[in-house]
């Protein structure tokens, strides 16, 4: 098998025709599992010069302004994009390699535009996603009320076994909060998806959200026959920090 070069990170194309796994698009032989995870038999080199063993696509979705881009920037660069809000146009991606139980897992993270006018672009990418981080903004009730509609859309366009996690973002904004944490928990339970609150501003639970998803995906792909199933919500509950804490 020839060595595979990962797709570019920052500055990925905004056009809907670009594929999340460019090697496949180019017709190169990329070994995949049944669900499409890139799983090379030998480590591959990512564009940032990092080797990885397995790669997955994760999509950030949710209403415009909930903090998808900020969450990704916080995770990738450890910084917060303060100041004026620049709404994402179309779709973009960044790569990050995590070490999960000794396995180097590359996440190719797709940041989608929440605005309605870009919805058809987003739809085209759902089917390639292995995991979806669905965000609402705890200071914006409408973004919370729209979660059901987002889930309907996800079920229509995404793979049946896609990993979904609900995130209530902007947990730092205590004074502006209009959605209680318990409401988020209740909704997540109703839809059977794991949940936690995050803050791109303070960094609260940001690393955890991506790590938990990477762990779930890695376990699904590489589980030994006798190994128990990874319990995503249990892991999150154990590792999660509450508002007022200062994980970064
Ligand atoms: N207080 C607080 N503000 C945040 C947080 N995350 C994002 N913001 C602010 O919310 C606004 C929108 O953030 P973005 O990340 O651009 O939102 P988005 O979901 O990417 O929006 P679209 O690209 O239009 O879909 C910006 O002004 C951010 O500074 C957070 O965790 N806490
Ligand atoms: Mg954005």
UniProtKB/TrEMBL annotation:
Main enzyme class: hydrolase
Protein keywords: GTP-binding, Hydrolase, Lipoprotein, Magnesium, Metal-binding, Nucleotide-binding, Prenylation, Protein transport, Transport
Instruction: Look up the domain of life of the source.
Output: Eukaryota
Q: Region (Disordered): which ranges?
A: 1-45
Sequence ranges of Polar residues compositional bias: 13-22
Q: Which Gene3D superfamilies match?
A: P-loop containing nucleotide triphosphate hydrolases
* A Pfam entry, by short name: Ras
Q: Does the keyword Hydrolase apply?
A: yes
As its record notes, the protein acts as a catalyst of:
GTP + H2O = GDP + phosphate + H(+)
Give cofactor(s), names only. Mg(2+)
Q: Which GO terms describe its molecular function?
A: G protein activity; GTP binding; metal ion binding
Q: Which GO terms describe its biological process?
A: protein transport
> Per the UniProt record, which EC number(s) apply here?
3.6.5.2
Instruction: Tell me which PANTHER family the record gives.
Output: PTHR47978
Q: Which family does it belong to?
A: Belongs to the small GTPase superfamily. Rab family.
This chain belongs to the protein called small monomeric GTPase
Question: Organism, per UniProt?
Answer: Carassius auratus
